[in-house]
Structures
1.
Amino acid sequence: MNHLTKEEIQQFVSFKTLDQENLKLAAKVNSHILKCDACLNAVRELQERYDSILCTQEEDTPLCGFEKEEQEETISL
């Protein structure tokens, strides 16, 4: 079995738009990680790292995918 490349995993984890190229990559990665625990773990690890970087952005920018007001509302619940 051929494993996903580091570049494929990095592109999959970090893409921001669903253009035709990224849709093909997402289909390839998702299909592969259903059968390959090693690549699934690599995707999970890089996704966690990528998400933690996004969550450390400045307060003026959206945090972890939320606008500042949405995050404040969520925290106050």
2.
Amino acid sequence: MEEIIKQLDALYGPGKGLHVYNTIMPGIIADFNKMLASAPAGKEISEEYRLDDGKGSVIIKGKRSSNGETSMTSTFSI
């Protein structure tokens, strides 16, 4: 999370990364959790979410275990 915020600060200006993160990430995570819930257990899925202004994208990968636990990683690219 901290690395993504640093990258967003570099892109949008000092101190703005956290605001952008708090604005976009809840919706992205909610959407990805829906995808995980419908994916077969053990299968890794990946999704790229482009920022509305086209300046970058968030890539999330994750999988759901057979007991329902989920794991996710995210990266930000410009």
3.
Amino acid sequence: MKRFEKPPSGGAGRAFPALCLVISIILIFALAGSSGRSVFISAFDSFPPSSPSFAEASADPAEEKTPPDPLMLEADRLLKRFGVKVVFGESVMRSLGAYRIEPAIDGERISAALAEVGRVLAMFPDGFFLRLTGGGIRGLRIELSGGVAGAPPPLGLTGTDGDFRVIVLSVNAEPAVIRATLAHELCHVIDLRLDCLAASDPSHWNGEDWLALCPPGFAYGEGSPAYTAEEARPGDVWFINRSAKASPYEDRAEIFEALMLLGPDSPIIKSPHIAAKLRYCLEAVKYYLIK
């Protein structure tokens, strides 16, 4: 989950192409020789096509039809390209866990958010999101929200709705923050899939190895600024911020969010300890998800 924060000033726009290149090289190279394009995933892909309704069957062919909604067309394009369903407006769920969700209805904000969602999803190779299915999960759905009740209101949530992983993403933010928040929440989704796969083979993903990447004697749950970018010199940073010290899941998600905001050349991302954690995550993704 991501709380409302303004992005650090400078560099976000310039860093994005470099970040795409770094992640694409890592993932696309690992995918070389694997199966082809993404499989179409939706909540309805196991049902036969619906028969035309009476109204459709008896409609006058000459009658002028309503032009397609460009927002729906863009959401459909994302679904077909990436296998990720994006919903907004009245289709948005009204709650996730204890959080109350307001649907996004502002067309301009929805359009801008769809563009950022597309930019982030395009950083991953074809078929990647299919690899996050299994273990009772058959797809990923992103719900564009006009706001989530909370103090402060979170910009993103990750949870499960039936057999779908769900990311709730607020449209009420600047483009760079939307991208970074989505990266944060996608990290949670990847985390959950890695946990499932590592249950039978923990060789590349386990708590002991991860804790070894933290300061000696450290235990998650303490919220001091020690070892964070707030207090430590860039080369001595072990955690992005205090939130990262809450749990391994938040630690990893804050790293991916910072990578999106700051870019791979940031001194914080290049800190030996942060770089080691990022390398561990990417190696696990290659081992479990890109074989």
